[in-house]
Amino acid sequence: MNRLIRDLILVASLPPLLATLPACASTPAQRGLMVFQQVCAACHGMDHVDYGDMAAFGLSPDAIRSWAADQQIPNGTDDNGDPKTRPATPADPILSPYPNEAVGRLANHGLLPPDLSRLAMTLPGGAEQIRRILLSYAPTPAGVKLDDGRYYNTALKWKHIGMPPPLQDGMLTYPDGTKATTQQMATDVSAFLNDVAHPHAAERRRIGLYALAYLALMALLTFVLQRRIWKSRPQ
Amino acid sequence: MPAPEKTPGWLERRLPVMSVLRREYIAFPMPRNLNALWSFGAFLMVTMAIMIASGLFLAINYTPDITQAFASVEAIDRQIPSGWFLRSLHMGGVTMLFACLYIHIARSLWYGSYKAPRELLWLTGLGLMLMVMVTAFAGYVLPWGQMSYWGATVVLNAAHTIPLIGKPVSELLLGGETLGNTALHRLFVLHFTMAFAIVAVIALHVTALHVVKPNNPSGIDPVSPKQTLPFHPYYTSRDGFALCLFLMVYAGLVFFLPDLLTLADNYVQANPLVTPRDIRPEWYFAPFYAILRAVPSRLGGLLLAVGSLAVLFALPSLDRSPTRSATRRPLVRLSLPVAFLSFILLGVAGMHPPTETWLIVSRLAMAWWFIHFLVVMPLVSEREITS
Questions:
Q1: Where is the Cytochrome c domain (chain A) (predicted)?
Q2: For tag attachment on chain A, is the N or C end more exposed, with fewer CB atoms within 10 Å?
Q3: Alpha-carbon torsion A187, A189, A192, A194, what sign?
Q4: Phi, psi (rounded to 5 degrees) for B164
């Protein structure tokens, strides 16, 4: 009996122990955030996502503050009518690095890098297609002529894309020791973008389980109640 | 010593709410043989309450302006505490509301609940359905996504085909030829106002129910008190159990299948210059969209789509048979399920691109819908032999 109680206590102490694990070993989405910060953010923004929202990916408040402070965001105009900027705060959106659409197009052969807030949801094929695109760059085959600023990519119907191959093996170092291969980074960043496109998904499922369990219990109780009431009905 | 029960109290003498509640919600005589389909009215009430409650809190955080609407909905989903839950509850609620509405109406069709003396119950119910449709349409425009804009444009274009008045009236109501800021403002106000108008009509609908008493699966009204049971505790307990099951389905949608409730295209901000590849309505409007597309003429499509609902309004005069339940009417028992199937097929067709096959399916299904109500029902009610 004592042994059983001891084992139960041991088992009950496991979940909090497991919960502390992600601090050292990161999830794909957490690594994907790093890829976004160091690679994607050079051209893409997430207009509807705040720096503060990145707390969902285990980024500490200090890390969020210092990341935001490194970014400049528009802040009205000065007395001469010239645009002013200020360092971003955690409550500011993760804007595109380009101050406006025209500059974005100018820098990218006339194409505007799309906003990534909901891309994993709105792109046909979703996050998996993002991963596929990132891994489907290939040398342009002989006989295929592509315009300037176009890159051969087999994941797309027309076999080309305006985004230069963004990932290279070992271009960043993951703090958890995972090797930053192109394959790994593509998987991680598509997991990250999937979570960004489906905000609060983990919380949603967690609360959903409680809600369903509660309703199932209520269903059971009300079922027994109505059975007993109907049994005693006058004939 | 307590006063004898018969002396009415202070409140009772001025406003007899307690005795009315006792009479209508505790002692109210209900048929003994109601089946699970009679719980859908309760589901509708609960869903409506959830819609209004969640809608109020969404409205607090929503900005009805074409430059900010999309971003304000994104903020609800991402930054507002529990905003994602409120919004899912509201979006899931639309699906649950329409599903229950269609089942509730199908039950009335099957058991003949539209017949004397329940014609007004039927008509107020159909009125509610139309009001819910207008509200849902206006609400779907509010997030100002691509489907919001282009779905509404399809409806607007259909309305423009009404000769003479179509265009001027819709321009007057929406403040311009295409959807813009004025239209969004007005649709927001419409959405909000309609919700409360619906509550008022629900009151009428329920009052009518309490006057004529509920129908039942046999279609024969109980004559003696012995054939009835008081509403409480018999049907309160049964509805309570049914509600738990209903809420489990609702919760399943909200918490585990939120992507089922929405089209991904609506997470792209509305752009009047870019038409989406295929404009699809939400499932609950799909049958009517299928009719709109199945007819080569735009005005014809609009007339038939409206007509598909109008036949329901005319049903009490089309079906003159005194026998209520389809289970006692051999021909109706065959024809009505095919009409139900037609409605479902139209819905499926409306959610697919209009290929040759789907157009044929839509046309056949639409034809049966009208044949059932306009030909089968009047003829059968004259010469059928009921069991």
A1: 27-197
A2: C
A3: negative
A4: 65, -65
How far B122 CA lies from chain A's nearest CA (Å)?
29
Residue with structure tokens 């109980």?
B222
Q: Is A205 on the interface with B (CB under 8 A)?
A: yes
Name the residue among B309, B327, B329 with its Cα closest to residue B319: B329
Torsion of CA A216, A217, A220, A223, to 10 degrees: -90
Tokens 């001891």 correspond to A6
> Please, what are the domains in chain B?
32-275 (1.20.810.10), 280-382 (1.10.287)
Q: How close is the nearest chain A Cα to the Cα of B120, in Å?
A: 32
Q: pLDDT of B200-225, one tens digit each? A: 999 999 999 999 999 999 999 999 99
Nearest-CA residue of chain B relative to A47? B71
**How many residues would you count in chain B?**
387
Other CB atoms closer than 10 Å to residue A31's CB: what's the count? 24
Residue A20 confidence (pLDDT): 47
pLDDT of residue A235: 81
Q: B120: closest CA among B244, B204, B28?
A: B204
Q: Which tens digits make up the pLDDT trace of B261-295? A: 888 999 999 999 999 988 889 999 999 999 999 99
CB contact under 8 A, B254 and A230: no
Residue A233, chain B, CB below 8 Å: the answer is yes
Inter-chain touch B241–A229, beta carbons under 8 Å? no
For chain A, the structural domain boundaries read 204-235
Question: Rounded to a whole number, what is the distance in Å from the CA of A56 to chain B's nearest CA?
Answer: 11
CA quadruple A128, B266, B345, B44: dihedral sign: positive
Using a CB-CB cut-off of 8 Å, the residues of chain B touching A47 are 71
| pLDDT for residue A24 is more than 60 | no
Element (H, E) at B31: strand B29-31
Residue of B77, B241, B260 best to disrupt the A interface, most CBs of A under 10 A? B241
Q: How far is B43 from chain A (nearest CA, A)?
A: 15
Q: Are B102 and A224 in contact (CB under 8 A)?
A: no
Cβ pair B268, B275 in contact under 8 A: no
DSSP for A25-80 reads SPPHHHHHHHHHHHTGGGT--EEEEEGGGGGGGT--HHHHHHHHHTSEEEEEE-TT
A215 with B247: Cβ contact below 8 A:
yes
Which residues are paired to A153 by β-bridges?
A137
Residue B384 near residue B329, CB atoms below 8 Å:
yes
Over residues A105-116, the pLDDT tens digits come to: 999 999 999 999
Q: How many percent of chain A have pLDDT more than 90? A: 85
pTM reported for the whole predicted model = 0.91
Closest listed residue to residue B215, CA positions, set B103, B328, B330, B121: B121
Q: Residues in chain A, how many?
A: 235
- Set of chain A residues whose Cβ sits within 8 Å of the Cβ of B264: 121-122
